[in-house]
Amino acid sequence: MEISDAQKEREAIAALRDAESRVNHSELIISLLVQAITHFKKHSSNRMKLYLMYNLAEEYASSKDYDKALNYYNHIVQAYRTEQWWPILEAILPSALKCAYLSANLQDWIRFSLEILNPNIQLSSQIKNQTQTNLENLIIKNLTPQVEPTVSSNDDKWKALLNKQPIVIDADTFKGLLECKVYFTHDAVSVDCDITLQVALKNGFPLPIEFDQLLVYFNLKEYDDLANVTDVEKLKFSPNEQRILTFNFTPRGDHVQRTLEITSVSLIYGKINQTHIDFQWRTSLQPNPSFQQGPLTPKWQIKAGHILWENLPIRRKTNVIMRAAEVQLTVEHQLPVLLYESYPIKIHIKNCENVDIQSAV
Asked: With helix as H, strand as E and coil as C, how does the chain read?
């Protein structure tokens, strides 16, 4: 009798396991998490909502619905970065990067890679170095990313992505990884003098990096090609290196009484005719952009032979003004002695220009 009962027990357990294996537990978990997120969103519990969104992203990833998982990863990574919860980001980013790889989402994979490379993220140097190496192999050498042996290979989909595809990155959101400051040396320049513009770049990548181009865009399009760098030797950076690039150009005569303003700066990583990353700094995308107008210091302070980044001034506008005429003006006169006496005055104007003065007011 005992043997018969044990046999029935084993059969019952096997039947229960079989029935349970046919139930999609992931759908049940996702449904409950969505309801919980809706509840905490209704009561403005943002912290709890983000925590549950992370659990939901993990559940979507475990059920291999990587596109939906990426939507939640993007939301929570942006939220925690904005609030500077770096330790939480350190725990989330490796999973988000893995999900972006498995879904073959190039833009999200690059964005999460840059998030990991941010100096504020205190992951191991091995992880950061491997992440930058994968990024370089993809952009420069057109090689698919290397992943851990436990992650299933997705090379076929990635090879299809290796075509001409610009990836635009708002560099202001990655403050610390790449920073840029612009400075016109004068707030007003006469039309016969050169405009001097200085562009300062600061690199926060853990390994040496080489960019392809630096492009500066102005509100007056005639100047767009006058402050560009295509010499890669000037765009090679060591870790934590900062560099100042100086440009000189002459204002146009028909731009007198107009303001010249920098609208954006682009730093290109990779060849422009292939898949490349376009790091952009703009004036209107962030509430506290890197072009924020601040107090100007008369001299850039130097400490131990290095320029302090915090002390670099910012001036992104300059005015083009009419030049002063090269003339000499002298007045000869003698004060009168008597009341109502005539008062002769002689005014001498000498033209010091190289050409004749046609008219004067």
From this structure: CHHHHHHHHHHHHHHHHHHHHCCCHHHHHHHHHHHHHHHHHHCCCHHHHHHHHHHHHHHHHHCCCHHHHHHHHHHHHHHHHHCCCHHHHHHHHHHHHHHHHHCCCHHHHHHHHHHHHCCCCCCCHHHHHHHHHHHHHHHCCCCCCCCCCCCCCCHHHHHHHCCCCEEEEEHHHHCCCEEEEEEECCCEEECCCCEEEEEEEEECCCCCEECCEEEEEECCHHHCCCCCECCHHHHEECCCCEEEEEEEECCCHHHCCEEEEEEEEEEEECCCCCCEEEEEEECCCCCCCCCCCCCCCCCCCEECCEECHHHCCCECEEEEECCCCCEEEEEEECCCCCCCCCCCEEEEEEECCCCCCCCCC
Note the pLDDT tens digit of each residue in 54-71.
Answer: 999 999 998 889 999 999
Condensed to tens digits (0 to 9), the pLDDT of residues 82-94 reads: 899 999 999 999 9
Can you name the CATH fold of 174-321? Immunoglobulin-like (2.60.40)
**pTM higher than 0.85, yes or no?**
no
Q: How far apart are CA 62 and CA 130, in angstroms?
A: 24
Q: Is the dihedral of CA 28, 29, 30, 36 positive or negative?
A: positive
Q: Name the amino acid, one letter, at 2.
A: E
Whether the predicted pLDDT of 18 surpasses 70: no
**In the chain, % of residues over pLDDT 90:** 53
- How far apart are the C-alpha atoms of 302 and 311, rounded to whole Å? 9
Distances in whole angstroms, Cα of residue 297 to Cα of each of 82, 174, 179, 195, 275: 29, 26, 19, 19, 40
Instruction: State pLDDT tens for residues 89-108.
Output: 999 999 999 999 999 899 99
Which CATH number does the domain 21-162 belong to among 2.30.30.30, 1.25.40.880, 1.10.1790.10, 1.25.40.10?
1.25.40.10
